[in-house]
Amino acid sequence: MSDHGRSPGGAPFDVAIIGAGVVGCAIARRLTLDGARVVVLEKARDVLDGASKGNSAILHTGFDAPPGSLEQACVASGYAEYLNIAPALNLPILKSGAMVLAWTTEQLAALPGLIGKAHRNGVPDVAPLERDEILRREPNLSRDVLGGFEVPGEYLIDPWTTAHAYILQALANGASLRRGAEVLGGHRGKEIWTLNTSTGDVHAHYVINCAGLYGDVVDRRLLGRSTFKIRPRKGQFVVFDKPASALASAILLPVPSKTTKGIVVCRTIFGNLLVGPTAEDQDDREDASTDRATLEALRGQGIKMLPGLADCEITATYAGLRPACEFPEYQVMQEDGYVTVGAIRSTGLSAALGIARHVAEMIGPLGTPLTEPVIPLVDRLSEHHPRDWQCDGHDGIVCHCELVTRREIERVLTGPMPPASLQGLKRRTRVTMGRCQGFYCLPELARITTGRLEVPMDVPTGMSEGKDHD
Amino acid sequence: MTERAIATEQCCIAIVGGGSAGLALAAEARRLGAKNVVVLEREQSAGGVPRHCGHYPFGLREYGRLMKGPDYARRNVAAACAVGVDLRTGATVSRLLPGGGLEVVQDGYAYTVRAERVVLCTGVREASRAQRMISGDRPSGIVTTGALQGMVYLAGQAPFRRPIILGSELVSYSAIQTCAHLGIRPVAMVEEEPNTLAPGQLQLYLRLRGVPLHTGVSDLAIRGKGRVEAVSFTDMTGQRLAIETDGVIISGRFLPESALLRASHLEVDPLSGGPVTDQHGRCSDPAFFAAGNLLRPAETSGFCWREGRRAAAHVVADLARPRDMDRHTVAIRAEDPAIGFVSPQRVVIGRESSASGPLHVGLALPLNGVLQATSAGRVLWSGAGKARPVRRVHLPLDKILAARPEADIVVSRVEVR
Ligand SMILES: Cc1cc2nc3c(=O)[nH]c(=O)nc-3n(C[C@H](O)[C@H](O)[C@H](O)COP(=O)(O)OP(=O)(O)OC[C@H]3O[C@@H](n4cnc5c(N)ncnc54)[C@H](O)[C@@H]3O)c2cc1C
Ligand SMILES: Cc1cc2nc3c(=O)[nH]c(=O)nc-3n(C[C@H](O)[C@H](O)[C@H](O)COP(=O)(O)OP(=O)(O)OC[C@H]3O[C@@H](n4cnc5c(N)ncnc54)[C@H](O)[C@@H]3O)c2cc1C
């Protein structure tokens, strides 16, 4: 690497951020805009390969967070900043609102307490809803619902483009990103950290550990100890095809339990409808597998709430891993030029910008804030906004289910942070994410991406090598 | 977005999808005198699924010649173009409008087509891994047969070297042929049903090719971090097996490509997954017809081709008539757990009632017995039916109609004691 682990000027970086999940990306953006020289070190071939890969994509208000917690504060400020910057960054928001629904008398009894908590959390527009009003607003909902309350400010966003926009803005304003760079160890000497990564040493004044599911592991590698232990909590989802999104308007939340927000039914910014997530504690930090029994149970739960789902096609199934730990709170702490941002369990997408501000305040100014930061353009992939296929001259549609154009794919492949694999191309453009899951467009994608992905779609078979195809 | 006045075109017949059914229908409609017949095909070349079926047998009955799929697709395209069909490729129909309208995006520009009659011929695809809810990780190297065929025959690429095949339908055997074309051999064929879904004789082909078969498996799971590493399952004897592999071919379990339909005003049959039609393929909006495998999963290319031809005759005749629904229709429905769906779902009855195609009875369970069609308790027709699950039986719709049903027609097995 040409910079020999130092910033372009030759000096150590101000900050090395470990992990390019949504939290690391947001912190990279914040500190870069504040004037720091930042390097982001990500062990995977691409960004967003950890907890941030799969979530419910809800922009939470924090109405149900523990009052007075850091989580509540970061969700609230992250939410506010998101609404502020989204238009300029071209990030879509689907202002769906949410309803918390009670299906049993015990749940009904819990509602007033939850409404009180929401008000204490500074979400004043949370208000009770009568059963009739709920059914008037959501005519497809099962008649079994007993009551609930509304949370008008809960919205739906694009989980991937959001984080991409953060890191792209950091990069456009001078930050560096190293993918495939796992932090293996390091030490601090004379105010400067040396991080040993799988692609060489990196020097920086500050280290920020945003390693998500490996937050405790990275603490141990660099500090020799960790004050918390990550216990991943898996969440499986079933995604229904677009017509299903007509069945619900608001995000339909259950009454939360101690460990989880429970099974949500909501639309997605991409025009689908999802049911999930489960909450399954496990030791494995990589195992995001799904299983049929759970998926069928989720589908069944969805049908119970929205009977019309029974006739809807399934588009996708997936699972995400929450970086949970033994404490019910974010693990954010600082010592000797080192900040841990750990266990950002189930609200990190909403809180990321708030966490970034919090961290920036913790470490204090590192440079002069940029007065006119560059704003890179990302494509809006939302079903509720005009898409590229509706704009002239896009050179044809490649993915027919998600209506992704050749121009969009080319923009991403030739852009500042091209994907390393088909996975990354999916998250950046939505190719193959639709109902056919690649049945129609994989061949064309294979052709377009030939020689352009670090992980090619083609596996040499000997036979096909050198063969003439037309 | 540039705001532009969207151009609107008029035509007699607009066909959505230039596969076997759409192309045959277009050519025949021209031959029967329809003035302008437009085919809108979203791929860069027309021909449909056969374009990527690099194997025999196609076209024997249609053209009197044994062909591979791509040659057959070209032949269908040439036949349509020769009689003046306006065939447009790279033309995606993005929306159906009541009364016979289509929103089209072609070469990056949008326009609207107003047709006297629209025929939907968008075909079938295979159910995805997600739709089949197959457990496990999501590594790369998992493709449907259709995607595999396209990668191999259209893009010249191979997604794996030693795949495992999930499914045992005819198309699963095509997957073996596609692998053979690459010079690779699948490591196994795995089926959750107790027997293969394709005719049993084909198991000989598996033995010939040296592909081990496992039927009646349960708890199937795909394992692998970056790439597929193994597929594990419990076999019929209760033993847990893991087969090392670098790819998975998800084959069969066809579903109508009904995206346009489901987003439209047309009535969809949730059981077949296709549109609700009468015996002539007419949809719930009288300006719309459907033909080919969109109607139901799934027939051969030749069947769809002939179905397209028959539909053309009906659509062309219909052009001369006022565009309203035939009044005397009754519903056809199944009342039997073994039957997954029927197609068509309603029939025009009365004086001019006729049927040129069969009544499809798609099976949810294996069938071996006597089927009957009754109406108001009267038996219209009965006969033996035998087929594997996921397959179908054809009942003679002309005979059923000849018995003059006056109320809804119910299909079921005859109770056998
Ligand atoms: C099922 C589910 C539903 C959710 N729903 C929502 C929701 O609706 N709204 C919401 O706001 N939040 C939601 N969340 C929470 C949100 O997704 C997480 O809080 C967030 O993704 C955590 O991001 P992170 O950056 O902390 O971790 P990660 O995304 O895991 O990022 C950490 C990164 O660090 C890298 N890394 C690890 N070790 C090293 C190393 N040694 N060297 C270099 N790099 C390393 C990893 O590869 C990874 O990319 C949900 C989460 C789940 C699982
Ligand atoms: C993987 C696979 C393998 C098969 N193998 C065989 C085989 O070996 N032999 C055999 O006889 N049959 C086979 N079949 C059955 C196949 O469906 C028929 O051969 C035949 O292609 C059906 O004809 P069709 O016209 O109904 O649909 P298709 O041939 O599928 O044509 C449908 C066309 O509609 C187009 N289309 C869809 N939506 C739109 C839209 N919105 N706008 C514009 N165009 C659109 C598609 O691009 C496609 O070209 C196979 C099917 C599949 C899925």
From TrEMBL, chain A:
Keywords from the UniProt entry: Oxidoreductase
Residue intervals of the BFD-like [2Fe-2S]-binding domain: 397-448
PROSITE patterns to which the protein is assigned, alphabetical: PROKAR_LIPOPROTEIN (PS51257)
Superkingdom, taxonomy of origin: Bacteria
Pfam families, per the entry: DAO, Fer2_BFD
Domain named FAD dependent oxidoreductase: residues: 14-362
Name of this protein: NAD(P)/FAD-dependent oxidoreductase
Automatic annotation (TrEMBL), chain B:
Domain FAD/NAD(P)-binding residues, every copy: 13-295
Transmembrane portions of the chain: none
Entry keywords, A to Z: Oxidoreductase
Pfam (any one): Pyr_redox_2
SUPFAM superfamilies: FAD/NAD(P)-binding domain
InterPro entries: FAD/NAD-bd_sf, FAD/NAD-binding_dom, Metab_Enz_Cyan_OpOx_G3PDH
Protein name per Swiss-Prot or TrEMBL: NAD(P)/FAD-dependent oxidoreductase
Biological source species: Salipiger mangrovisoli
Lineage of producing organism: Bacteria, Pseudomonadati, Pseudomonadota, Alphaproteobacteria, Rhodobacterales
